[in-house]
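In this notebook, the sequence line spells out the residues, with the fold written below as integer tokens. This is how one looks.
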Amino acid sequence: MFYVSNDGNDRWSGTRPAPAGGDGPFASIERARDAIRSLKAAERLDGPVDVQIRGGTYQLKSPLVLTPGDSGSSRAPITYEAYPGETPVLSGGQRITGWRKLGNEADSVSPAARGEVFVADVSPGWRFNDLWLSGRSLSRSAAPNTDDWRQWPRATPARGVINGFYFAPGTVERYADITSAEVNMVPFIGSHPVNFLAPIANLDVRSGTLVFADAAKDSVLKKYRNGDYFRIENVLGAIVRPGQWSVNADKGKVYCWPPANTDLNTAEVVAPRLLEAIELRGFEGRGELVRFVRIRGLTISHVDRRRLDQPFPPGPQLRLIKFETQDAAVLLSGVEDCSIEQCRITNVGGMGVRATYYAQRIRILNNEISDCGGSAIAFEGYEAGTHDVNRDNLIAGNSLHHCAQSSWRGSGVTLLQAGHVTVQDNKIYDLPFCGILVSGYPVSWVRTHRLDPKGKMASPEGVVEPPNPSLALRQGEIGDDPLTIDSVKKFIPGSVLIKDNVVSDMMKILDDGGGIYAGWSHHTVIQHNRVYRSHREMSYGIYLDAEQLDTTVRDNVVYDCPEVASPRIGAALYLNNTGRNQVRNNILALSSRLFQFWASDGGQVATQNIFLFKGIPGDAVLTAAHKGRMNLRDLGVIKEPRSPLSEILEMPIFDPAYQGFGNNMGPSTMDYNIYWSTGGYAAIQPFVDHWRKGGWDQHSIVSDPLFVNAEAGDFRLRAGSPAPGVGFHPFEIPAAN
């Protein structure tokens, strides 16, 4: 047993929890790590070793890095943990002091903020993206000052080739500190499911041009559509209310309009210095892994994210990576049989925990992860191929909330090319995008990049451009496989179990996601989850996206998805160009749009479910109102003139005769369900009559399922419920967040 304390000394033995008699604990965790290395070198490590860290804040000068030489074994695991009853905080930040009222630069301040802004000196060149006041995050300045991107300015048609985009002159103000700023963009890529932040080299408000910093040009989207939304962040002139701040790294100045009744010189104001706090770094290629290390009971705070003009850490080159920060408070790669348990990770600019490449039998258990810039937890394997080594991991018992605060694409749990994972018993809430996201590779992208890796490809928008390096494949492993929708699945990890989770209040900012999302993967099981309150109109409770095959959705309750009154798009359940999926014994409730089936590949089964509509069913089910087809323009999603993309998106609905994109997985079945509405029989029967004309639900019944109190989230069945008559089996529902 070793001990670490702020009252310790790295020259002591570290074997006492408190100073006594000229000996006591170590002063640093690194010293305890090195002591364990010495034990191993002397072959004296013959049992478990615990490093207990006393309460207090530990200012990290660099990340704590554990390499293969710091491994334990199954017989002698190594644990870094909190001393019983105490709270050690590992901080990668630095306190900022010396605040004073802003003087000579007052002409750069917005009229609303004049006389209110304070300034402090920081090291020139120190670019940070977050600022915390007494443990709470302050808001970085932004113009416009809203996260509702539909109120932002929009890009205009290109007038030439630049490393950036054009906008209407006069829609953006001039800022003297623009080279410290980032532009936050929400591009249209079929919908609006992503944002990205890019550093700015120049902003010319008279000509209406914004140019990205040259170092970031390879990291941002190459094409911008007319109408893409954007705003400017981190400029002094955009501070317009209390609690906002900005930093001018060139001048070494940080500005803040403090919240009411706050003295910045007596409060603790902290900015991040480090990009990671803890790293477990193995070397898979040499067969040297970090094994049997446990991190338990620590609080980790105050680490940053990289900007796109800063070098990124090594990691998978996956399709979705460029839309999210790649930094993390705890970073793992080349690891197995390790765990992060009972930690609190909060106030970090990147992800909470990220495990890349080789990561097996990793356990992320009973942590609270909040106020992150990206995903709370992410597992990311190799590109498409047979090297399936990010697998057999467990994410359970965690509270994940208020994450993805800057990289909005992040989720509570993100699994990219990671399979055989169990995601169980987590509480996930308050997110701008998905609660849980599982993704692989679509067959069309694998075909394109295998057959013509150096040629041209056509994007969904019809723009011809070179292949994106982020679509890298493991070419030698794919070989001459014909790459059908089925055969490609052996190059894509699957078999994810998502069970007993509670996901709520998601999809607060972006579109086209859901509480639980799975796309381009296979053999996923989504069972016994409570999913409720998705906020955007184009949002879903459970969302199976393109080429999601052989998935089971069973014993879930989904309601208020979306919670928007009379939504034109969005639904509790969405199957989009998928096949051979089973939707059984679920409760879908309290929306006028409960299911949406778009271009089925066949082989689908939806049976023994309870559908409780809110009022009169909307066009959620794509009935004859659209003549079997759905046009996004009719629903207000596409507002531009007709384009190849909008033609592509006009696709037949859930139809046993329809073969998707040339795939035929057999007939689909939808029957033996219960239909009801909060508006009673008169509200639901016309819809069911019309739906049956398509051949669906011939044996389903229209009847009140007799929930105890659906409006209050109590979906237990009262005595006399007709649900058993269609084969519905009651199940215990996880408690709400």
